[in-house]
């Protein structure tokens, strides 16, 4: 049984409605006024929430689908503001966000904590999250319970499961309950130990057939879309053509219905091994390093904070009254002296100047 067939869907030209010079967010309209330079309210239609039906239309019209991972509220806001189609709370969160050695260490509760944060920020994108390793394997009943928790406690709209034909019955059951399932074949990071590492899949004819058979079985089981990870580009293009559901590639070439990358890879914030398929679209890591170094330098040299522009004054006369009341009328501030006295911070090494002065 196929639950979502593109053939069932009306062919509305929704793309034109969705694309425009800006992507005003419905939820944060109040903090993002839609007033153009002319002072006139733009006549842009409000953005539609991304749905599975829209994804099918994009596949049909050949509009590449964009998906990025998000693990927290501000990232979700960024995806939302700029019109990324699918927000994926990937279990890569284990590594890039929580510092765990593998996605297999991530628990369902940890995942839910992050999906809720992303759900608060991602109004426009379809919200999909990985079912963590172990949360869908013990039995179909167990898988359904976990999927329902993902929706009820995690506020996701769809779940993603790694696996081939062996998980087709699980995908079918979860889909039948009404939780849309995105499948994931090819390189399956949750199986990195069993596969002796993160290896490209489907490189020989037998491997390619296994990928195709898995994808067809998962589509048949009701998956609404499928991630193809680290497979040869010819194979990904062929699988995409054989399927009627949209494929989302990562390390699978340009012949898929869409692309996905990990946020921290795109932004250059992840300093672990860089997979061949990663392209860095911005260098946030460099900016972060600059920010931390500048902050440390400014605190150490006393230029931050500035008491006039970054501090608070007392009401007139109250300071003198206060000093009288505490019997310390002769008290003198040393802040100005410290600002010009290099010796305090340099000779004391790591000791904060204010503390050094108090001792
Ligand atoms: N930062 C990050 N980006 C990811 O894409 C990602 C994660 N983390 N964590 C979870 C999984 C793990 N992934 C990975 C990790 C490493 C390779 C990798 O190094 N692949 C080799 C292929 C080697 C081969 O078989 O020839 C490569 O050189 O690209 C691929 C996917 C994808 N996911
Ligand atoms: C890279 C994507 C497809 C993923 O599964 C993840 O982020 O965990």
Number of strands: 8
Give me the Rg, rounded.
Answer: 27 Å
- The overall pLDDT, averaged over residues, is 87
Biggest sheet architecture: 8 strands, parallel, barrel
CATH class of the largest domain: Alpha Beta
According to CATH, the fold-level topology of the largest domain is TIM Barrel
Strand arrangement within the widest β-sheet reads 1-2-3-4-5-6-7-8
Distance N to C terminus: 76 Å
In CATH, the architecture of the largest domain is Alpha-Beta Barrel
Q: What overall form do the CA principal axes indicate?
A: elongated
| Broad structural category | alpha/beta
Fold blueprint:
Elements lengths: L14 H4 L33 H10 L3 E5 L3 H10 L3 E4 L3 H4 L11 H14 L4 E5 L9 H13 L5 E5 L5 H10 L3 E6 L18 H16 L4 E5 L3 H10 L4 E4 L7 E4 L1 H4 L17 H17 L17 H8 L9 H6 L1 H6 L5 H6 L1
Parallel strand pairs: 1-2, 1-8, 2-3, 3-4, 4-5, 5-6, 6-7, 7-8
Helix pairs in contact: 3-5, 6-7
The chain binds 5,10-methenyl-6,7,8-trihydrofolic acid and 3-methyl-2-oxobutanoic acid.
